Amino acid sequence: MSRTKVVITGIGAVTPLAHDAHATWRAMLEGASGAAPITRFDASAFETRFACEVKDWDATRHMSRKLVKELDRFSELAIVAAGQAIADAELALSEHEQTRAGCIVGVGMGGLETIERTTHKIRDKGPSRVSPYTIPAVCANLAAGQISIAHGLRGPSYSTTSACATGAHAIGEAAEWIRRGRADVMIAGGAEAVITPVGIGGFEAMRALSRHAGDPRRASRPFDRARDGFVCGEGAGVVVLESEARARGRGARIYAELSGYGASSDAFHVAQPSPDGDGCARSMRMALEDASLSEGAIDYVNAHATSTPAGDLAEARGIVRALGDRRVAVSSTKSMTGHMLGAAGAVELIVAALAVARGVVPPSINVEELDPEIALDVVSNVAREMRVEHALSNAFGFGGTNATLIVSRYARAA
Q1: Residue 339, SS3?
Q2: Which one of 27, 64, 110, 128 is least enclosed by Cβ atoms within 10 Å?
Q3: 344: nearest Cα among 278, 399, 405
Q4: Which residues are catalytic?
């Protein structure tokens, strides 16, 4: 039985590299790094004092001061990325079409900055000074809610929350609404903004963060023998998904087809991946089956690889289990953006779609000596021009949750 094809017609991103998706892409091809000393708070007492912040961010350049007062930073980033994606898609909706258009934009940890700020305000000035916007700012679904309000999206509106797999799950689930014929357009992605004392302190206590002593730009080094943890990032990534029929009917530019979606659980440990890569391999196999592709069809993998010793190795093993020992090109753009947590899967899906559309694969930077246990063709330090028919993007999270998305070169049916 045939099913509705889902295509990507718009992209938007706010990242540590740039304030839009296309500038972020160009920076990645140049091997730029977004890591720098933390400026969001005084980090002098912390062991890790660097992160991948969104730099020079002023939300009032994009929205009213009144709206900014209602939002946590993660929602600011998501709203702007969604606006970019909608503009990029040249999307216009009639009143009837609005009822067939929805929004699933997730966040891994919610409004942590607002929670911390409000806690300090209660302590210092008392509960009477708490903003009435506090709870709406904190709620995980309010990025999707605010985007829906701003753009008249009257279909399904909610948030996925699955730690670092959030953005990928949001896009995969949004595609399912279109595939089932219950929506024609979905705005989907993820956002995160937890470069705060609690965010950095919590990850630091888990020994999850890099403690690189030199240039912060060298700290995120997925697949490298000397990797010692991830660099915390923030940002947002949003795509416009449409049914093929609608996109073609309006003459939309199509970046790629979203052809496959898989999800699984390691069911192993709250923070560590299954060492043999079984869970992530099952997610990849499910995505391949969903896309009706063989393991040999994948040309490029945008890996989840965060630069942790255990995580990168487990994923490398999972990639080999799922795709065979053929030397498929692999890179981790977290080497440049840091780990954007709930936004990572969405931004990296955009990267995979652009690799398909543009015929070039961004590098993993800071690979000075490839870990000898990682049997992958890592695109090290320099972008690689190559034809990409099918690209796979992984996103994994605490609790053992895994999500895989596959994007394919769009081929119009005869």
Answers
A1: strand
A2: 128
A3: 405
A4: 164, 304, 339
Quote the tokens at residue 309.
Answer: 């010793």
Nearest to 237 by CA among 174, 330, 331: 174
DSSP 76: H
CATH class entry, domain 7-249 = alpha beta
CATH 3.40.47.10 fits 261-408, yes or no: yes
Assess whether the region 7-249 and the region 261-408 belong to the same CATH fold: yes
Q: Residues 343, 346, 347, 348: is their CA dihedral positive or negative?
A: positive
Write phi, then psi, for 300 (nearest 5 degrees): -145, 140
Number of H helices, E strands in the chain: 14, 15
Q: Are the C-beta atoms of residues 198 and 311 closer than 8 Å to each other? A: no
Give the pLDDT confidence of 96-122 residue by residue, as tens digits. Answer: 999 999 999 999 999 999 999 999 999
pTM for this structure? 0.97
157-158 and 101-107 as β-strands: parallel, antiparallel, unpaired? parallel
Q: For residue range 124-140, list pLDDT tens digits in order.
A: 999 999 999 999 999 99
